[in-house]
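COURSE: Structural Biology Practicum
ASSIGNMENT: Worksheet 4, Part C
STUDENT ID: 0417
INSTRUCTIONS: Below are two proteins. For each, the amino acid sequence is given first, followed by its structure token string. Answer the questions at the end about the second protein only.

PROTEIN I
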Amino acid sequence: MPAGPPLQPHDVFVTDFPFTAPDQARVQAALGTRRAIFAAGHDGLGAMLAAQPAATIVCSFSPPADVLSVAPGVRWLALPSAGADIALARGLIRPGGPVVTTAAGIHMVPMREHIFSVMLLWLRGWPQRLAAQTRHAWLRDGTFWGQRELAGVTLGIIGLGAIGRGVARLGHAFDMRVVATHRSATAGATDPDVDALLPLAQLHDLLAQSDFVVLALPSTPASRGLLGAAELTAMRPHAFLVNIARGDIVDETALIAALRAGTIGGAGLDVFAHEPLPPESPLWDMPNVIISPHIAGPTDRYSERFTDLFLDNLTRFDNGQPLRNVVDPNRGY
């Protein structure tokens, strides 16, 4: 999608993304004489936008719902997130509106590392080992003979974008069998990164054969509630679910019931239906759940990777060329 006429000297870039100092300098250098405003936090972004109605590019994980009325000249919303669900829910992605891009692709390395760290924590019994360490307990009671391996087990991946493919390749490096599905997969199709590719209509088949199930798809109207009670029942009793996508893709009430009943073995959850996860949620105290507070993506290289992508898109924007990772208003990603 062409971005329209290039930026002019009077145009303004406003962001609350936490660019590192070196990356701020890279952005400012690329903008040249055009003004860049680096707001301090989300509250600062709203104030800066109100003071800068000439803003042309806005970069934020969570752009305000009124950004297009406060700054009607915005032509590009650059989201540093992999998904666009917040902007979509706020009505900011619309035909005829500003071009909206995501940072899809930059999260692949940290997210696949997070996924496998959780899987290995579970397989090797690290929650119990760490609890024993706090008690100064030498936990060598014979249960270690039951520790399992990744090699030879089946990894099921729902969503085969950049993150899903990265997970598939790492799964093969661990000698796992990899099966996957995504919204456009068709019967009989193959893919070089997986051992079997199933259409989404065969989701239950994927779940029934997987020892680990990884959710790596965006939150859209079509994917919300994709895993409900029936899907959880289709999983193997020892299967472990990893969700680094979005909390609304899973029916959380059904998940809690499945974990309590032993319908599935356990879950590693980085995202939830409501965030922060409420203190009263039973998920906190479940021995078969590993919780992280929506931190699978950020690392010390996030700013660097996002800046690389942003600057490439800025060059494209200035030259009237199609941008990378443009969100389709009809698909929501």
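PROTEIN II
(use this one for the questions)
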Amino acid sequence: MQKDKAVEVSGITKRYGSITAVDHVSFEVVEGEIFGFLGPNGAGKTTLIRMLTTLLKPSEGSATVACCDVVKEPEKVRREIGVVPQAMTSDLDLTGYENMDIYGRFYGISSKERKERIKHLLEMVGLSSRANDLVAAYSGGMRRRLEVARVLVHRPKILFLDEPTIGLDPQSRRVVWDFLRKLREGNSMTVFLSTHYMEEAEALCNRVAIIDSGKIIAIGSPNELKSQIPGNDIVSLTFENLSEGIVARINDLTFVHKVNIEDNSIRVYVDSGAQNLIMLIDKIKSSGGKILSATIHEQSLEDVFIHYTGKSIREEARKVSFLVGAGIPQKWGR
């Protein structure tokens, strides 16, 4: 049976003067899926989420969220969604319970239902024993879990998470991942997740849209996206003396599909990398090449991004100043 659409976006665009932060983006999200928006800082992810959650009006195009138009019916949209922004917004001077209780009051939830709902959600995120502690005493991971639990108090149909694990250490990040997986078990809620962590998108998302410079460049499940890249492994090599002749000899090998050159380094897209690595190195040595380092890895969403843009997500992320707030247009657009 075909599922209904939780989010429908058609040609949505946001301009700030001469800068186009989101450029004619179109996609659909079906009910019950975890849909990921993957791209570097400044690609347009936060601006898109702010339009879908009615905080920004589009310059052009349209979008419906939970069957409600984001421009014509913003109040209806807000009652159907939960939003966890990049910046943590829980009040440090209140307890975890008090933060959730105030949120429930905003939505007009009765006292009895609030108490039952908050107790259940705090148990779900593993914070029952810390419910009456000030949030100022929470770790970053605990505070993020509280903020996800808080936006679930009114039972939203769609949950928007904007870089939910940014700034967290790897252990805290995985705790949040485990919670989101648990949240999805036996639950029809739709989750819209933006991230620049490739492993996060692969670990959590049913489908992923890759965005760069305000445009969607690829969309599909993680496996579908990776299958679009030739070969199943990538060998990265750094040379002391890389020449065109060496690259030509590498391209002659039958198991090599593609070679990308970056200064004195190359990325070689190959079949069965572990099996063919020795043959590849022998070919380079016989061509007079001196290898300084060699690594091999299976294809990832990072490689999909490089395949379409010629640059890495990490490389782009370094260009953006963390002094500039999310969603603020700058040289690279947002």
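ANSWER KEY EXCERPT:
Q1: The two ends are 37 Å apart (CA to CA).
Q2: The chain has two domains: 5-220, 230-298.
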